[in-house]
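Appendix B. Worked example

We walk through a single record from start to finish. Start with the input: the chain for NACHT and WD repeat domain containing 1, Cyprinus carpio, length 1324.
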Amino acid sequence: MKNERNAFWEKAYSELQAHCQSLGLVFEVVDFRCGVRDIFTSDHLTTELCIKEIESCQRISDGPTFIALLGNQYGHRSIPRLIPETEFELLLSKLHKDSESLKLLNQWFSKDSNSVPPTYILQGSEVLEYEMEHGFLKTQKDASAVLFFRELPRLSKRDCKKNFAKFLLDVTADGLLDTEARELLANLKQRICNTGRLQPLCMELSKGAMDPSRKEHKEYLGKLCEQVTSQMKELISRNALQTSGTCSTVDPGWSWLKQEIFHHAMLSKEKCSVFKGRDSILGKISIAMWESTEACHEPLLVHGPSGVGKTALLCKLAQEMRGVVDHRGVVVLRLLGSSPLSSDVDSVLRGVCLQVCGALGLQFPYPHIANVHEELVRFFHSMLEDVSKQGDTLLLILDSLDQLLEAKKPHKLDWIPKVIPPNVQLVLSISDDYVEKCKSWVSAEQNIFRVELLTDDQGKDIIGAYMSAAGRKLTSEQLDTILNRFQQSRSPLHLKLMLDTAKQWSSCTSMSNVRLGVSAQEVMTQFVESLEENHGKKLVSHALCFILLSRSGLSEAELQDVLSLDNDVLAEIYKYWLPPSHTLLRFPRLHWSRLRHDLTAHLTERWEGAFTFLRQFAELVRKRYLSRDMKADMHAILAEYFLGQWSKGQLRPILLPSLSTLLNADRKVPPQPLWFTGEVANMRKLHELPYHLAHAGKWEELHQSVFGSVDWLCCKTLQCGVSCVIQDLSLCTDLTDCPEIQMLKETFLLLKPSLDFNPSLLVTEIFARLQGLADLYPSMIGQLCSQCMDWFGSCTDPVLVPKCSFFQAPGGPLKSTLTGFMKGDPKELKLLVAGSEDGLIIVWSLNHLQTLHTLSGHTGRFLTMKTLCVFLVTLTSMQRVLDLHHDASVLCAVSSSEGSEIITSAQDRIVWSVTTGALLDWIGVMDSAVSCLAVHQRTIISASVIANQLKVWQLDYNTKHRSKSFIPAYYPLVALSKDGDTVFYVKEGNKTQVFTWSCSEGLGSDNMDVSSEVCCMELAQQKRLLFCGLRTGTIFIYPLDFAPETLCLPPPESLPMVRSMAISPREDKMAVAYEDSVCLFEITSRDSFPCVDGPFERYSLCLLHSPISAMALLSDCRLLYGTFGGEVVIYDFKSATAAELDHHGAAITCITMSNWDAQALIGSQDCVQKLWNLSPVLLNHTMEYKGFYFEGVLCAVFSINDKYVFTGSLDKTIKVWDVCSGCLLYVQFVYSPVIKMMPHKDGFVAVSQHGSFIKEGFRCPDTLKPGYNPLRIFRAHYRVTSREKGLNAPHTVINELPDYNPAQFNFIGIGLMKSKTSNTCVLL
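Next comes the structure step. The output line below is what the pipeline stores for this chain.
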């Protein structure tokens, strides 16, 4: 069957592999005969290993588990390796007259009295039927096997004799046809057919196809592969569908947790099965728990040297406590580091919280809590309190805490609570190397327990239990040898390693030929040396290193693939003979199965089918094999595997010792796509590839395939979370000094707070932060920005496309945002300690930007001193030396660590000043007033009493990375030019001056002074007139094309404050709202110089109404206005009539007209906005938006073609609405409320409350996907109520009029037609 096997690997394997990947499955083939010269080895172990592999496939496979092609040879009928004593003695009794047979049996079989019961072992069941028995005949699964019969054509006796060898027919020793074997083969085929569960497919050879050199034989192989592929695909797809159907009945959110709980339960059961002694320390721990159960207490800490038996002790404690606690009690055990979900803090806490909440009926953590470390730690602490208050009992056991520690990050254990509430017990274990670091949260000596070495009696008890569990025993000589070695160390690990070896001894094994080390390290070294001798040094060293260097273990399929790429291992295997095929080269599976059989005692299963080493054995492998060069080579092979570099038929060259030239062969390793299907990601690639590329030093591939790939970053963020991306980036920054990787790391630190809630915003976040740095860093950041543009261009859903960098960029002063409070002020320490009004205190490490402690119980808020002056204080005097002047009230100030700088906060700005009083830098913004500052070295921490975040700033940063899209001052009023290039604003502390800021030039030097406080501003876009309404009732008008000329409209006699202004679409009229009236002015020109005439009309306001808060002036002299009380009125200046429209429940915040004067959007402080048709006046849509908090609309603008309306809201989002249907199309989080917007090309320009200048385009497909939900990533909902179409004139949407200028009508010559004197005052 050699030709059929080779054909399967060359033609069918890759296609089946791709089919499985498309279903999110891993396709693994276990073929013991592939690449092996002689499978019947001298120790007769192969058949047993083969049966174990069949059983393993049946246990873990979701598809067919057995493929067989029965030809025309029954094959070798092997002698069983083990025969029970009773059966062997019965056999001897039947042969008592045949002395020759008795001699042979006694020569080849020896009695092993160590086996319980005793057995006879063959010294060094036909294989075919034995495999068929276990692979198909015994199983009850209908779709577990694929079987083929190869039948020969009818042959004459002459042809038959001539072709015995060619067709692998069974022959006897003298060359005759073996009729017994033919009969056995026929019976086997009949048994298969008689099962009724499967009808094997018969493949009949023609006479021409019997010759491998002929064309007919190749056609036969092609048809065979087609049939195998077809049958396998059908079964795989059917089983995958059944499995998915079964899984759909179980909550998928619980499946991983159930597997995790089962994993630790099985490990614990295994440890307890041989546990003996330790009654004293178990009793002490139990008493300590009983004495502290009614009061608050510390955790309990168990420690001891490595290998002393701490894990087994805690497993036994968990087992005994389960029998003690009542039905309202829960025992949770985690053997840390034994599985991927027990190898990092967040996964452990997440699993523990879900298990406890599910068992005791507590509220589960919300996703946004479970995915954020700080929130998860807080939930864990509060959960323990809830368990106690509920009166339940909880015992949480966490073994091997050192598995969560990294050498450079000892703070990783600071999530452990220092005070445990009543009815809750927390038992922890750690090695002696870290016990001193735990004294900060376990200080009482009575809560610390040291595990001592074993006594002689305990050692004897463990030997008896261990050997009994294995079904073995020892001779007295063997027992004395083990006890003698054990007494030199008294280590449980040393004893276990010796017993693992002793399990293989028979009663005939002489101790004179056995070497047992006097320590665990020596025993493991001897074991590895024996592995090298039996399996080959290259195979042993490389296989062990691959497993050790993997990030979370390797599956057997992955290890076989990786070894297939390792030329050194393959060269060792094929040292003396050639591989079976010159076009295909795979690592023979039998070699790994034999090695794994010997390694069983040192392997631990981390996840289904994947292994890693026990800790002490891993240290030995690391010291013995991993030189720097070998480590880099191993990581390089692993990186190439997870890159898929040698998949899809790519030939990898190799120089074999048996060949003189390079052999280019297909290694048949699977491709490694980022996504197997649209919903199934390649999690192994996501987890392993960055790790191996970094450690292999393959930085170019890392830049191109990982960090320089938007697809990769999106996939990893969605599947693993932002923290995992930051972890990968931190790994790389520790290994190399690459500014682009550092920039990307800082980017993810900046965007983490928002992406923890909304990971699908990643592309927008990356592009809006990095766009300005693309030219400085073209190789990776420039590549990312280019891919972002491609992503926006191919996006099939509505999307806003950033046109500039308007989020904080990396490399600038802002380094990170710390979350965790509802409200807060920080206190200044070397560590950052912050307290909030709700009594919560959180401690952060400023070096690692991670939570260290969370404290509660205080009821008052923490206050910080405020100052405006700098004093020089000596022992005898205090002298005022400096006054620092600000535009707004200074809320707080702090001195730098060196005392040479003063950092002050005014409103939401942080200002850095030196003691000379010179303003050195404006380093950042917040969207709320900074109420407290703290300094640590060159780091500043700012907080606000009305924000739930702290911001971390750096005094020393690269000014090239400073964002150019921020306006460096707080402003309550703002006006935007239509092209989005210029911003006019007034400062909070200086409202008598108008400042100018340009996108290209920054802050302008030509400021405009006014005589009183500015209350409102409007800009006539086409005529370039800036109107400023003052508190005194005066209106200043700045002709931007005639600077520094200034016009002035004098106030009415009562000097009322100007509340609002509105300019008509054609910019020929302007309405001004005072306290008690609205006046209508005309905008004209004389001799090409602009002027304003009027007022020509006056509309007295109702005293019962609230003051006007917003208004818009239509081209036909109708005025639409809203009040602080929610009233909406439309007034016609021509007919002097007014009509009230639908009332809002809160103050009107914005009234925005469409570009063609046909519609208006009215927004208010509540969640309601209404879209009106203006001719006739009809309500088209009522749009209600309910979000997490603060829904009110602040500003709005229609797109140029009036198809969409953009709104800026208090919830710090920009929303896009469809004008025709009123439906919400898109929501974007922008970190700060947007307060002003203007239409621009295919989108808008806007400014936010904290100074961001935003420019975006909007792309929307003609039709939306079915089920598209713009709120899929937001905790909000919206409702649209529309009038029925057809009852009134339908709304008309003008699609494209890009060149329309609403001011072009009646502009030229308007001034010449006027005969009245202008009321405009020109200031010279």
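Two observations about the output. The chain has 32 helices and 61 strands. The longest strand covers residues 1089-1100.
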